[in-house]
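hi! just following up on the protien thing from before. the input was this:
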Amino acid sequence: MFDSLTELEEQPYTEEDAKWDHFVTAHDQGSLLQTTAWARLKNRFGWRSHRVWLKLDGQLVAGAQILVRSTAFGLIRVAYIPHGPLVNWQDDEQVGILLNQIDHAAFEQGAGLLKMEPLLWRREMTAGDWEELCKRHGCISDSDSIQPPRTVVVDLSASEDEILARMKQKTRYNIRLASKKGITVRVGAREDVAVFNRLIQQTGRRNEFGIHAPEYYRDAYDLFTPDHVALFIAEYQGMPLSAVMVFTHGQRAAYLYGASSDQERQRMPNYAVQWAAMRWAKEQGIVDYDFWGVPDHSKEDLEAQFRERHDGLWGVYRFKRGFGGELFRTVGTADRVYNSLVHRLYRRRARRR
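and the predicted 3d structure came back as:
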């Protein structure tokens, strides 16, 4: 086994990139957040990206794409592995070797803290086993998360009629109502990213949450097109009312970004646009449609509280639950602390967010 450290910059797509992306796609825990395109997107918005990998007999067996940036006026430099590392977590030796190489890369970049968020579901490893693994390898488990650890995933392997049948009755009704009330959905082109940006400005103001700069959504579309992103726009008489940007990776599609107008909401365009995206994903051979984030509470608590709570992700849970998906939860996060002062400053800053 050996490691290779590569800094990813704006350059032509290389053979090394292709090998890495093939490895990510083939890995059980692979995610679009570990792809070359995602690293290049983040590179354009304040992050630097690096790769560390292990090879056995010339074949990639484990690795991580690491993002690094400075925060709090440059006082805190944090390394971050979204949906990674990609490693056999049951193999302590492999985990230890890879973490050692990750530490080396983080040290070279001057990071005082490394945060990992593997796409490892609790059905594959219990929370207790994850905590014990973190202790063995000198990590702090159950720290704050950056990606939402809990999500709703819809199984698209069944027929469209079966998918509809699994939905809540009100959701099925709203999908059909949208059609009756004149809502049409089309697949957008690059110039329609401007439409998406206008809609998400309204969404941010209405729901009081932060959004990315317009250039971010444009670059995300550019970097993943033509094969791994699609933009869907729901309209009424030519007026854009709702839009979603859906990304694909392997047999999984993820609804990362959505936006909607303040107008004509009674026509249910949000339901129509999601159903169109799901049908499109199914046509592409996608098996799982990931709604990407719900409140991090048990199913019992979610069902007991979603009608009353509207803070954080609670406002979207009622909508997402209606599509008949299954709740999934990752094992959580793990921090590797290289500088205790940086860690304290980071935790203090995270609590204020």
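The mean pLDDT is 93.
The longest helix spans residues 92-108.
cheers
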